[in-house]
Sequence to fold (1344 residues):
Amino acid sequence: MRAIQLAAFGLDHLQQVDLPAPRPGPNEVLVRIEAASLNFRDWMLVDGQLYRGVSLPIVPVSDGAGTVLEVGAAVTRFKPGDRVTTFYKSRWIAGAMRPEWEGAEIGGPEPGVMRELACFDQYSLARAPAHLSSVQAATLPIAALTAWQVLETAHITTGQSVLLLGTGGVSLFALQFARLRGARAIVLSSSDDKLERAKALGADVGINYAKYPQWGALVREASGGAGVDAVVETVGAATLAQSLEAVRMHGFIGVLGWLGGMEATLPLAKVVLRRVRLQGISVASLEEHERMVAAIEATGLAPVIDRVYGFGQLREAFERLTAGGHFGKLAVDFSA
Amino acid sequence: MRAIQLAAFGLDHLQQVDLPAPRPGPNEVLVRIEAASLNFRDWMLVDGQLYRGVSLPIVPVSDGAGTVLEVGAAVTRFKPGDRVTTFYKSRWIAGAMRPEWEGAEIGGPEPGVMRELACFDQYSLARAPAHLSSVQAATLPIAALTAWQVLETAHITTGQSVLLLGTGGVSLFALQFARLRGARAIVLSSSDDKLERAKALGADVGINYAKYPQWGALVREASGGAGVDAVVETVGAATLAQSLEAVRMHGFIGVLGWLGGMEATLPLAKVVLRRVRLQGISVASLEEHERMVAAIEATGLAPVIDRVYGFGQLREAFERLTAGGHFGKLAVDFSA
Amino acid sequence: MRAIQLAAFGLDHLQQVDLPAPRPGPNEVLVRIEAASLNFRDWMLVDGQLYRGVSLPIVPVSDGAGTVLEVGAAVTRFKPGDRVTTFYKSRWIAGAMRPEWEGAEIGGPEPGVMRELACFDQYSLARAPAHLSSVQAATLPIAALTAWQVLETAHITTGQSVLLLGTGGVSLFALQFARLRGARAIVLSSSDDKLERAKALGADVGINYAKYPQWGALVREASGGAGVDAVVETVGAATLAQSLEAVRMHGFIGVLGWLGGMEATLPLAKVVLRRVRLQGISVASLEEHERMVAAIEATGLAPVIDRVYGFGQLREAFERLTAGGHFGKLAVDFSA
Amino acid sequence: MRAIQLAAFGLDHLQQVDLPAPRPGPNEVLVRIEAASLNFRDWMLVDGQLYRGVSLPIVPVSDGAGTVLEVGAAVTRFKPGDRVTTFYKSRWIAGAMRPEWEGAEIGGPEPGVMRELACFDQYSLARAPAHLSSVQAATLPIAALTAWQVLETAHITTGQSVLLLGTGGVSLFALQFARLRGARAIVLSSSDDKLERAKALGADVGINYAKYPQWGALVREASGGAGVDAVVETVGAATLAQSLEAVRMHGFIGVLGWLGGMEATLPLAKVVLRRVRLQGISVASLEEHERMVAAIEATGLAPVIDRVYGFGQLREAFERLTAGGHFGKLAVDFSA
Fold:
């Protein structure tokens, strides 16, 4: 079967190889992988910055989708023909993350999804929403679940408001989930064109942060003066101070990433006196993933995909990811 | 000013009288009441069954809406011209109900809203949603807040499912709120016509309980086999056993009323082994009411009103209330 | 190795047999079982009333403790020499119970602990508290975890009060856990002698329910007039009405059992107007069990054991269990 | 009556004056103030750094205790002879802080407690624990409630562990409350003597941060390797990085102050990957205060008081406060 391997760190070392087809163990499921999608984490693996112990060569990329071909004797959750996605935190079934599960991650240190056939433990897979293609389903595991978990942890409900920093995959999923809960969405971008596209997706307010670097006050005004109920903080260092301006008393800031640098400056008095909650979030358990899939199915949500690449175009996909500027997810279609 | 008083218990003793116009104290707001709506509690007052100490004559009816005419010197929440509704639990600002606040209820033992002018403490009023008429806003306080509080306490979110027993005011508000959260709604009625109307409002499934007295199993099937996430239990004695059939493992039953009798039979093993939560709910605090108003405004929700009566038709309105069979709320328009 | 088997339903059909020693699979742990304890559920198995599909003969009894002898190649949680207890809901690692895990229960339908050697999946075992003997540790899994889960779900904290119905295993664990949280404990019994023993364990108030059948009002009085924060409802049919008298506004009733009959009468108005939560509870996940073990270790809690029987005295132990009147747990010491 | 007024900012401008005795309005309570205690906020008022609009002269100090002398006609919560403390956030009865309540604070901008007689709204006072003197009770409102709220928001329970940064008032209350919940307490100080005193109060572990500036790893080790469940972060800028080292996966950091500077550096990857919650906390509502008083009464907790000053020694008390090094609270006894 075809696979992509990373032989050494760096984009130049992604190479297509031919690997033997795997056979499922008793608790395992053999999946024909049909699509993948990229997350920033995948770039960190390729670039050599991943904080986990990884041994090369490795099949990269965490998120994939496909069809069950065969199941081991002890498998109860799936049967041949079922459509599935991977679940990247491959041991985290429910409850709190346990130390013994922490390193178990598909796409480094465990092998990733850029291979046509793969075996996974039955709890490392989730049912794909019935109305989505494999390319669409492959965009869910990390980005959609992270967005879902922010809204869920913040208990976002009808009539509340959520702030999204940009139009990457996590932000747009958060926009869609917020609207489905009856909440208002305020989106930041440096591109008026992207703000228009976000509004077409349901955003109530768009603010061009390049024009208004003190956007915190504008967001507060746009949410009735009190501030937003939750911020989906995907950037960090460059934005946290304004996010704290934008959030209401007792509000919630989901801290998801460090795209803008590893360290942020935290204005303590504002955190204390406004009783803000800053909550680190990094995906969630399979139990939450399954609740999200039920929500996606019940509402017919369609992921926003910026561009779809062929199996042989992984390098081009990574180049667009690191260049920034995409609107939604970058996907790989194994049949293209 | 015109008012309706209950001189003795019984529908025959509702009489229109002329009362002197009140003047607001320093913390009070003078309101021109423009509309009212009926709840079963209002009937209990008129009928003499209300469990609170009530002295006659009394102005009946708990829920009203109108316009602020004048405010006392210490009032900070409202100004003349503001449109408001009453808040029936007139002392319950936030947090848990306190014993010292328990008896404070507009519409018995405190005077009700069937009068053209009334003074209320500024925390016994809430802002009316801007897009609603006074007749529409008057339907909110008890029924909408009770429905809101069930979904809020049950943390109902996108992709979940809610069961509604009938098509009265609370059930239809719950249906609307469930849909706004992206949840599915399953409605029971003994009338196929009402089930159709409920579907037009967004209900996903309608079940005629007269045809299927063992509807619990049908509801479970209609929610993917696992059972609904929450039941809005407005009936009680006649329905609780089937509600327990219908609800999922770890599910939620909001216990709201006793229309079907004061005592229900509780099958203990089912409650224990399926880890069901039965939660008594009776409205909520002003803080929750304000969150609900924000949700109603943000989504443009329009209450479902069965019929509107004139100020002089309160008796007719009560007769329809006790006859049952209404679809949504019964309102009184003071200008009609 | 020695084992006890139930060949047919009924106490007369418990028989000692000799079974071959098992060998651990890759995810399994071989345990030398050194002690067991009895729960009412064990009696239901023996008596044939258990609601699960059970095939005979079966080794009975759910709760045991012992020492790890050997571990499979994939086992990461334990090593030889570790002291462990069983975890009766053998698949429920964390989060909500899943349908696919529901029937997996040690002591029926899965084999129980009355055997000297047994293999368990590594997630079907929990570390035993270091300061407890195997006989003591064997009393924990079902009874202590159920008591823990009530207090945890009710968020019982310092200064609150808890009502316990009787002096069986669950009630006494709840008493001990309540005291460790700084909460007050009120205990009911029909024996003044047992009430004294409960006070020696830390109970603040003891009420003889045989003398005061309307004990609800007494409990309310003993908790400052407002009512207790939580009731550990181990009885059900005979007590629920009084429990509702005893609990405060917004209070919590943990519904755990049906010792007093399968059906209780529920006074609806009281549930609604006092906004009571009735929460069905049946043990909890391994994650909660581990938090409980940490609590037991940190505080040095010693389980209350009514009587210890030898391996050959299981019948006598069951006779005392069904006779009632025990104060705390009944245990079996395999070395006696 | 005697009072202390701040005529201009600075310690030199505290002066004793004679003010007329006040008379209670209908919702007010006349209190004979018998004691006060100092918080860092009081120093910010005197020093002119308080972030609220304050007009001079003003009676300083937020926390006091005394005896009710007289009540207004509408007062239901208190009667003459009741012993009370002030409740500094004088409008925050329950639920979330509301914008309209935010500025209402006893001790600036509202008058403080350094006067022998004062009138307060009945919801600006709380019952004092029966077993405490007025000097002891005066130490509660800000410091104890802040400590209580951290443990309550973090749901700290038996078997968990809490880290305290230093031995000031908030830290020692947190230590006492943690022990009452059955949790372990780890205390930092730069003084071995104070660490010994903290252990005498129940601390399980003491760490001298002057000797071990990388104390995060030591704390983690002292809590079984996983890290503490909660940190009571009273310092901020100088400690946050180590606090993040010390806290467990999914752990809680209560952000309470900025003694070490207005801005802290936040290492984002650690917050995200360990899913830490940083929660700004600044006292809590009266509802929480009353729950805390119930807990203090039920357990007989005695506040730790570093030193008691006379009414005329307020300047000396402030000098000790700003010098640092106190162990527990600084109080003022009006009868001394």
